[in-house]
Specification:
With about 80 residues, the chain is α+β, with helices and mostly antiparallel strands. About 20% of the residues lie in helices and about 25% in strands. It starts with a strand and ends in a 10-residue tail after the last helix. This is Metallothionein.
Amino acid sequence: MATCEVCGNQYGMTFEVHAQGSVHVFDCFACAIHRMAPICEHCRVQIIGQGVEADGHWYCGAHCARAEGKVGIVDKV
């Protein structure tokens, strides 16, 4: 049984996420999101869907990127 790196739960059905050369172990998607999701640099929400990256900074959407002075950023729909 593996242990979730976020909550410490020992669970027989944990899963691994391989990202940027590291391996992370979680017992549920909520813990994976908590640890792995980037945070919007304007409103501080965790970016679970498709965020916007501008000049190496992450935002939840174009509105927050523009609020931080990024120009030419539009949401893709």
